[in-house]
Write a structure and sequence with these properties.
Two copies of one chain form a homodimer. Chain A is an alpha+beta fold and 258 residues long. The first copy, chain A, folds into two domains: 151 residues, Jelly Rolls, CATH 2.60.120.10; 87 residues, Winged helix-like DNA-binding domain superfamily/Winged helix DNA-binding domain (Arc Repressor Mutant, subunit A, Orthogonal Bundle), CATH 1.10.10.10. Helices cover 36% and strands 21% of the residues of chain A. The first copy, chain A, is built from eight helices and eleven strands. In chain A, strands 1-8-3-6 form a four-stranded antiparallel β-sheet. A four-stranded antiparallel β-sheet of chain A has the order 2-7-4-5. In chain A, strands 9-11-10 form a three-stranded antiparallel β-sheet. In chain A, β4 and β5 form a beta hairpin. In chain A, α3 packs across α4 and α5 crosses α7. The first copy, chain A, binds a DNA duplex (30 and 30 nucleotides) through α7.
DNA sequence: CGATATCTTGAGGAATCTCAATACTAGTGG
DNA sequence: CCACTAGTATTGAGATTCCTCAAGATATCG
């Protein structure tokens, strides 16, 4: 479901597809780390990349796994999470097409990664990618830029988790989804929710019941309306932004969804 | 107060102090980004670095400021925070000697930075540092490694804010401070708290009253004991770790305090 | 079209917050 | 050196938000 609505990401004029050089034809290349390489250098990625398809609910890696690979999502969506020993869970991010994951300069991943929908990823072995980074500093710069943006998003999320009310949390989350949709679709008002209420709850530090009640509150205030439980419309965007704690002048500076 | 107890960080044999090359004599160099440069190259930093001293409570920069500089703390401590329009505040990290801040690939800082104690920092203009990064890829790699570690810490903090109880939050915080002290001091049991209860509350997503009550609960359980309100001892480290949700096998993997 | 998941709503309870009073600490001046 | 003061921390009582448990409604999928 997430997959087909993002087709607009694909450049109108597709690249030549070279059998031995799939990265050259990659639809998300320019959006991800790989975009840092010039066309002629992209083939170097093929030498180290492998591909993987994940069914919904399938794990890409666990928090405790040795962090030996980095990944780029070419299609679908993934959730990242950490758990406490007793099973309480915190989702630290939802990732979509062209997003990057697996950055860990320690030897273990900092979180588990599980597919939300049918997902395909490119896998880059860490050691071989690092060798490539030595050769192409622009790629490393891009990686640093991505990490820096993720850090900023993580801080936004701390503000949300530590200081916002349930309704504000949900409004902030929907605001992010809406910004994201605006960037990638024509209609920024319609939002797909590929994750369950449980996932949203674990992302926002709430229970499913409170998420549901907050949805109902936003409906009652006519800020949003539902088509189906997985698809909704934002009716009153300014009110949504106000609830999310976003000041009007910074509407543009949309943040990635982590 | 934070300052003098960390003197052990300074290598026993001080470097030659060259008047035109203060970075060569820098006590925290090896611990920070600057440590990525070899001794002969360190002088290159002098060309771009300036220094600044901050009084307690003085701002280094505001969330809305143009992000044109990066900083390394040479002494003291700093808190980073974000605010909501109505004044609610979330502290996203406490930083100490040798810590690095200001990374922002957007044009504005993601947070405000304010000195907790008397603090000195090195300031590197962003554009000139980037030029240096092009020349010394090891430095960029180090920066990426720092960013990656901060990201992991940010995710730990999300788990704390979203899913831990007040007592668990405080125990986790004290655990971090204790790990940090163990790395830098001989006695890992004694913890200095250079921040107020208000700062702790804004870091943990609580109120000062709840922080205070949680301290009292930990005292009652004889997990900690106070010397003064700003100085305490951990009595029962295993119990502290258990409350913090840290499994025994991962005690080593101490995380930075962000 | 029915079975199963998921989502929504309700009622009561628990954790944390708010407001208010008291105690402590550190600095100041007598 | 000690009382005084201003700031900070602790404790208490009641209010509020969110959670838990339970029931009912709505989607989704074979």
């Amino acid at each position: 479901m997430t997959a087909n609505r993002i087709e607009r990401l694909v450049p109108a004029s597709p690249r030549d597809i070279q059998p031995d050089n799939p990265c050259a034809a990659c639809a998300v290349r320019d959006l991800s780390v790989c975009g840092a390489l010039r066309a002629d250098d992209v083939s170097r990625l093929n030498a180290i990349v492998t591909h993987k398809t994940l069914q919904p609910g399938e794990m890409l890696f666990l928090e405790s796994d040795p962090a030996d690979s980095l990944f780029v999502i070419t299609d679908g969506s993934i959730k990242l999470y950490k758990m406490l020993p007793d099973g309480r869970r915190q989702i630290t991010g939802f990732l979509f097409r062209s997003d990057f994951l697996g950055l860990a300069f320690r030897d273990r991943y900092a979180y588990s990664a599980e597919a939300l929908s049918l997902t395909t990823v490119c896998r880059f072995p860490k050691d071989r990618l690092e060798a490539l980074l030595d050769e192409f500093p622009e790629m490393e710069r891009r990686l640093l830029s991505i990490a820096s943006n993720e850090l900023a998003s993580a801080q936004d999320q701390m503000l949300l988790l530590g200081r916002k009310t349930a309704e504000e949390k949900l409004a902030s989350f929907l605001w992010l989804l809406s910004r994201r949709a605006t960037l990638k679709e024509l209609d920024g008002q319609t939002i797909d929710l590929p994750m369950t209420r449980m996932d949203m709850a674990d992302y926002l530090g709430l229970t499913i019941e409170t998420v549901s009640r907050s949805f109902s509150a936003l409906k009652r205030k006519e800020i949003i309306a539902f088509t189906t439980p997985q698809r909704m419309q934002i009716i009153d965007l300014p009110e949504m932004a106000a609830l999310a704690g976003i000041e009007e002048e910074s509407w543009e500076a949309s943040t990635a969804l982590r």
